Amino acid sequence: MRIGEIAALVGLTTRAIRHYHHVGLLSEPERRPNGYRAYSVRDAVLLARVRRLTELGLSLDVVRNALADDAGRELTEILEELDADLARQEADIRERRRRLGALLAEPPGATGPVSPALAALLAQAPRTDSPSAAKDRDYLTLLDATGTGNEEMLGLLGTLVGDPAVVELYERLDALAEAPTDDPRIAPLAADLMAAVPEELFAAIPEDGVVVTGFKEALFAEYAPAQAEVVGRLMDAFMDAFMERGRG
């Protein structure tokens, strides 16, 4: 058989067969006096097997290994590994579709793709139009998306956000939007916010979970000057408590 004939027989292109020759997957047959390659039935059987294996998702290197006479791994072993890998992919796709379905079911303006644990916590948060509360929900979503916070840490933070008494603290922070940085309400509000932080939170923070300088600067830029002063004092007090907890 010529290359075009064997290609049509096994359902491959002549280009693919030439590539298999180039990578050493299929030995080039001897040429006839007229210069054409003469392919045998054995070549056709080998190419048919190559096609079936590559259609299953095996790379050419793995196929070459599987088809080797002596040194190659058992084909059954390779196919079992492929089956296990496909099963993992299938489970991953099912989970992604489940999460996608939950997102599609959300009402307009919802938070967006978050973990099930955080979604449940945010759903319990009291309804408020506070811009400061909205910022905190965004920060929780960021922690969740980046993996910065573990489930225990997110749960404690989510509980804090969901506390109805915290809404008043958010509203007090909102009220500082037009205030100067020496406003007398700043220090008491920072202290009250710190007092609302669960003690267990410090133990849940991973050692590498401390906020980096670049993020702090970006965070402060989200607030008006007096509000940023409150947030800065809160973060300083938080870090002091975190370090003290670590020394203890």
TrEMBL record:
Residues 72-99 form a coiled coil. Keywords: Coiled coil, DNA-binding. SUPFAM superfamilies: Putative DNA-binding domain. The keyword DNA-binding applies. CDD domains: HTH_MerR-like. SMART domains: HTH_MERR. Residues 1-69 form the HTH merR-type domain. Gene3D superfamilies: 1.10.1660.10. PANTHER family: HTH MERR-TYPE DOMAIN-CONTAINING PROTEIN, REDOX-CYCLING DRUG-SENSING TRANSCRIPTIONAL ACTIVATOR SOXR. This is MerR family transcriptional regulator. It comes from Streptomyces goshikiensis.
